């Protein structure tokens, strides 16, 4: 498990309804961070249905708190990573976020 936090962006660069991508500094896992009405959530940037980046054209719907994979239309809840419709049945990994020193931070906290 990584204890090292990865800087995503300045807080002013991630406004409500926006998302940003980064790579964990230790594990090199791609991560998407979402600002949903001022709350920050982070998910692995990979559809659980197929090895495809959710941020690769994926639509973040701030009204419903979901992201849709453009490859086959699977949707995930950005708050907890759960799959909301077929063809995805497994959730995507959720990661912690924090705001510190004017920046947004995340990390891959899996064992």
Oligomer: single chain
Strand order of the largest sheet: 2-3-4-8
Helix proportion range: under 10%
* Mean pLDDT value: 96
The H-and-E topology, N to C, reads as EEEEEEEEEE
Count of DSSP helices? Answer: 0
Largest sheet: 4 strands, antiparallel
The computed structural class is mainly beta
CATH architectural designation: 3-layer Sandwich
Question: What number of domains?
Answer: 1
The count of strands amounts to: 10
Note the overall shape: globular
> Over the alpha carbons, how many angstroms does the gyration radius reach?
13 Å
| Strand content bin | 35-45%
Query: In CATH terms, what is the fold-level topology?
Result: Rieske Iron-sulfur Protein
Full CATH superfamily name: Rieske [2Fe-2S] iron-sulphur domain
What does this structure look like?
A hairpin with a 2-residue loop joins β3 and β4. The protein is 0% helix and 38% strand. By secondary structure, the protein is mainly β. The model has no long low-confidence stretch (mean pLDDT 96). It has strands at 6-10, 19-23, 30-36, 39-44, 59-61, 66-68, 75-77, 94-95, 97-100, 103-106. The protein is built from no helices and ten strands. The protein has a single domain (6-105), classed as 3-layer Sandwich (Rieske Iron-sulfur Protein), CATH 2.102.10. The chain starts with 5 loop residues before the first strand and ends in a 5-residue tail after the last strand. The strands form three sheets. The chain has a four-stranded antiparallel beta sheet, with no helix packed on it. A three-stranded antiparallel beta sheet has the order 1-10-9, with no helix packed on it. This is 3-phenylpropionate/trans-cinnamate dioxygenase ferredoxin subunit. GO terms for molecular function: dioxygenase activity.
């Amino acid at each position: 498990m990584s204890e090292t936090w990865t800087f995503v962006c300045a807080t002013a660069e991630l406004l409500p309804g926006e998302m940003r991508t980064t790579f964990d500094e230790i594990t090199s896992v791609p991560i998407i961070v979402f600002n949903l009405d001022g709350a920050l959530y982070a998910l692995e940037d990979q559809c659980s249905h197929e090895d495809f980046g959710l941020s690769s054209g994926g639509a973040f719907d701030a009204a419903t708190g979901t992201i849709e994979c453009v490859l086959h239309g699977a949707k995930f809840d950005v708050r907890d990573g759960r799959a909301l419709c077929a063809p995805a049945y497994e959730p995507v990994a959720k990661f912690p976020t924090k705001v510190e020193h004017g920046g947004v931070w995340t990390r891959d906290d899996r064992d």
